[in-house]
Amino acid sequence: MADDTDKRANQARTSRDDRLKSALRENLKRRKLQARERGASTDPSQNDDGSLDEGAAGKTGG
For position 54, what pLDDT does the model report? Predict the structure, then answer.
């Protein structure tokens, strides 16, 4: 009886691990694609960190 419970718990854990691995893999693919798209369509008014460049944004010194 205990062996059956252990087997079911192990199967559930394996199934969960497989689902998590798959989800992580898909997430990584999506993030890589987003990074490539951001790199391809760079906006000259933004720095690498995403902050606005003061000169390109039209800010006037006072």
Answer: 59
